[in-house]
Design a protein that fits this description.
The protein has 184 residues and is α/β, with parallel strands linked by helices. Helix content is 35%, strand content 30%.
């Protein structure tokens, strides 16, 4: 009983310390409140990446506009691509592991056309074991990993948008100590 109480107290203290330091799971952060509308161009509107990015922005209460002239920010996605390569080979010269890579080039503009983020390649990688005796389930695993990777790319775009919006609007950034204290 005493050990259970100590475990509960330690867990509670850990939860308080983690929440009080501002720590949060990656991807669970919020966009700056000053972002109200975004136009996404360059991406195929029927692609998984476009739908995932749109969903992530809408979850943060950002309106996706049809025209870049109506938007506060414009996200241009270029050259979204997938790659698969052999990562490891077994002693029998058979593939035992693949590496999946998802990439997208992104440029972010302000409403006035100012480039806030130059062309940047965002990338995410995953590895998965391959078993030639179980091709169907390994193909399904690869598809699931690809969905996770596209979600990760969308979150990277949202984080970049958040960063450039804070840089371009210093009023939303946390206050910094300017070091102007007088010495006595």
């Amino acid at each position: 009983m005493k050990k259970l109480i100590h475990t509960a107290i330690a867990s509670l203290l850990m939860a308080v310390m983690v929440s009080s330091c501002g720590w949060h799971l990656r991807g669970s952060g919020q966009l700056a409140s000053n972002i109200s509308s975004v136009h996404i161009s360059g991406a195929n509107k029927k692609s998984n990446f476009y739908r995932t990015l749109s969903r992530s922005l809408k979850a943060n209460k950002v309106v996706i506009t049809d025209s870049h002239t109506e938007a506060e920010y414009r996200i241009v996605t270029l050259n979204q691509r997938s790659e698969r390569r052999t990562a490891t080979v077994s002693s029998g010269a058979r593939v035992s592991e693949y590496q999946l890579t998802e990439l997208v080039d992104v440029v972010i503009f302000a409403a006035n056309g100012t480039q806030l983020l130059p062309r940047t390649t965002l990338r995410t990688e995953r590895f998965y074991d391959f078993d030639e005796n179980d091709v169907q389930s390994k193909s399904e695993e690869a598809e699931l990993l690809k969905k996770e990777m596209i979600n990760d790319l969308a979150q990277q775009v949202v984080r970049r948008l958040n960063a450039v919006s804070r840089r371009s609007n210093p009023s939303t950034a946390p206050e910094k100590n300017t070091g102007n204290a007088t010495e006595g």
